[in-house]
Design brief:
The chain has helices at about 10-20, 20-35, 50-65, 65-75, 80-85, 90-120. The chain is mainly alpha-helical.
């Protein structure tokens, strides 16, 4: 099962919703941030736009004020280093947006791998 190529966070959100994976995506994001003792401020059932905004704002804050915690999140989510080489660095807001996209894409990959190997049991 090959994942489609995503252009932005919005396309990841639409795909997860169409596959019925959105709630699992929210849980996976929350789990990885919680593993590094960071809380994301969204309700029980955040809308896709809200989830993107909360992640982006948290990443922005970490980049600006708590860089070591930012690195911990990248490690917990398991973003490959090569993914950062393609980032267009204009300003911190753009970087936070691009990193949010990387996070959502990676979390979706994890879910799809779990789904793929769960079905082989």
């Amino acid at each position: 099962m090959n994942s489609p190529i995503f252009l932005d966070s919005e396309s990841v959100m639409k795909y997860t919703q169409s596959r019925g994976l959105y709630n699992a995506l929210v849980a996976q994001v929350n789990r990885d941030f919680t593993r590094v003792n960071l809380k994301l401020a969204f309700g029980l059932n955040p809308q896709p736009k809200e989830l993107q905004t909360v992640i982006r704002e948290k990443i922005y804050l970490l980049l600006m004020e708590r860089f070591s915690e930012y690195l911990n999140v990248m490690y917990a989510v398991d973003i490959p280093e090569r993914a950062f080489k393609n980032l267009e660095i204009k300003d911190t807001v753009d970087v936070a947006e691009q990193v949010t996209f990387l996070i959502l894409k990676r979390e979706l990959q994890k879910l799809e791998l779990k789904e793929k190997y769960k079905s082989k049991d």
